[in-house]
């Protein structure tokens, strides 16, 4: 039986049993990455360069659209998007998933410019999703046992260390955790682990 709707449910949780947004973002990223590898100049128009400091403001977000460093980056980032994205979409809903993904991308690219890291990649955006999931795990509302909660805490401690060392994945982890905490505190209807397991019926918004 379909559960009654809740006015506090995150927007976009309808059909959350089918993580359409995660797959859509994976597909778009695959297309833009392929274009970057095949079309001369396409990737250069999107990646991080010093042009950001000269009015090319789009380079604060577009680097998450391409993975230009070869098969290892494409496969790893795609796999991590599926792993984190599917669960995050069921926990937070599509609108808040999008906010976490973009917050990670913005934080990661901004940190990259601070430490002069060029190139590009979607992993910083995925780190935003991972940070949101860490906040969910630590909140207790996920109903997780102690070991995964310890792992989530260790992930955020590691994120702080990475940020301090100049790695561009630390800042998006922390940004995602902060935003995820805000979402959790402003939402009463937060699913537990049992609600987000594969095969569970979709939760209505």
Automatic annotation (TrEMBL):
Question: Which keywords annotate this record?
Answer: Hydrolase, Membrane, Protease, Transmembrane, Transmembrane helix
- Location, primary (coarse class): membrane
- Residue ranges annotated as transmembrane are 20-43
Q: How does it sit in the membrane?
A: Multi-pass membrane protein
Q: Where in the cell is it found?
A: Membrane
What GO terms fall under cellular component here?
membrane
Q: Which GO terms describe its molecular function?
A: serine-type endopeptidase activity
Write the protein's name. Rhomboid family intramembrane serine protease
